Amino acid sequence: MTGSEVPPTPFRLAYVPGATPAKWVRIWNERLPDTPLDLVATPAADVPDALRRGDADAGLVRLPVDRAYFSAIPLYTETTVVVIPKDHLIAAFEEVAVADLADEIVFHPLDDTLDWGEGLPGRPAIERPATTGDAIELVAANVGVLLVPQSLARLHHRKDLTYRTVTDAPQSSVALSWPEERTTDMVEDFIGIVRGRTVNSSRGRRPGAAEQPKDQRKEKSPERRKPAAGKTASGRTAGRGASGGSRSGASRTAKRGKPGRRG
Q1: Which residues, listed in sequence order, are joined to residue 205 by a DSSP beta bridge?
Q2: Is 122 exposed, middle or buried (0-12, 13-18, 19+ CB in 10 A)?
Q3: Tens of pLDDT along 212-262?
Q4: Contact predicate 150/81, CB 8 Å
Q5: DSSP SS3 for 39
Q6: Beta bridge partner(s), residue 80
Q7: Closest Cα partner for 114 from 32, 45, 169?
Q8: pLDDT-based confidence at 208, cuts 50/70/90?
Q9: What is the mean pLDDT of the chain?
Q10: More confident residue, 6 or 102
């Protein structure tokens, strides 16, 4: 690289624990190989501030977000599961309800991503764990159980733990979000990718080097040819019939039907 060359500005994507941007990153690298994409792992509660500060251009966040400041495209909603030791009684069932956890100590970590409102399930722990990871350690010690989005249960997988679906628990939704006032070309590119637009889509991507924007292309329209002097639009000499004799225009028009198709 010579001294005059400037490295390309990367697209910085923040993502919360449990989010899996790998598929979209792969498509980005295929479509925009000259623009690097940097992944920025960020705790769920810190993503909005990171986007406000400009530490990332966009983020995979957990809803809700401040819609007065951020734009957001919902991507998917996760199943909520209860994480338990493998020898726990609940492990005998495929799914349970919140009421089935009434006698259990249910951890509510400070970084909990589920909106319980005032209806926390089960019995409260003496102290709230600082993080989901800390709560997982307590579950492994057989102190209590933990409800989380399924992706977090997978992220903190341990051989001595398992999880089961909770049918009526609050759920967590993941969205692509960015500051509305900073909707850049790169943000539009990534929007196009997560929405499944093709590489030829006119939205959500910047024109390539060999491609001009549509409004700059010259649209070719067929030119309407003017009939030659002394001839009609059909190519016949004005004032002459098919047999070559002179006929009046009114007479010719009255006798002629729709033009036949030439063989």
Answers
A1: none
A2: buried
A3: 444 444 444 444 445 555 544 444 444 444 444 444 444 444 444 444 444
A4: yes
A5: strand
A6: 149
A7: 169
A8: very low
A9: 83
A10: 102
Count Cβ atoms below 10 Å from residue 71 Cβ, excluding itself: 18
Per-residue model confidence (pLDDT) at position 191: 97
Q: Of 212 and 137, which is predicted with more confidence?
A: 137
Enter the tokens of residue 50. Answer: 């990171």
**Is 95:118 a contact under the CB 8 Å cutoff?**
no
Taking the C-alpha atoms of residue 100 and residue 155, their distance in angstroms, rounded to an integer, is 25
Residue 258 identity: K
**Is-contact 19 151, C-beta < 8 A?**
yes
Q: How far is CA 257 from CA 117, 235, 243, 261, in A?
A: 80, 17, 17, 12
Tokens of 197: 């637009």
**What's the one-letter identity of residue 176?**
L
- The sheet with strand 95-96 has its strands ordered as 95-96, 161-166, 80-85, 145-149, 105-107, 123-124
Instruction: Show Cβ contacts of residue 17 under 8 Å, excluding neighbours closer than 6 positions.
Output: 41, 43, 44, 132, 152, 155
- φ, ψ for residue 236, nearest 5 deg: -80, 155
In terms of DSSP bridges, do strands 145-149 and 173-179 run parallel, antiparallel, or are they unpaired? unpaired
Separation CA 222–CA 229 (nearest Å):
21
Residue 157 in tokens = 């997988």
pTM, 2 dp: 0.72
Distance CA 26, CA 71 (A): 24
Strands of 128-205 (E only): list them. 145-149, 161-166, 173-179
Question: Is residue 60 within 8 Å of residue 13, measured between CB atoms?
Answer: yes
Burial of 116 (0-12, 13-18, 19+ CB in 10 A): middle
The single residue listed with the structure tokens 């390309």 is: 8
Q: What tokens were used for 243?
A: 């047999």
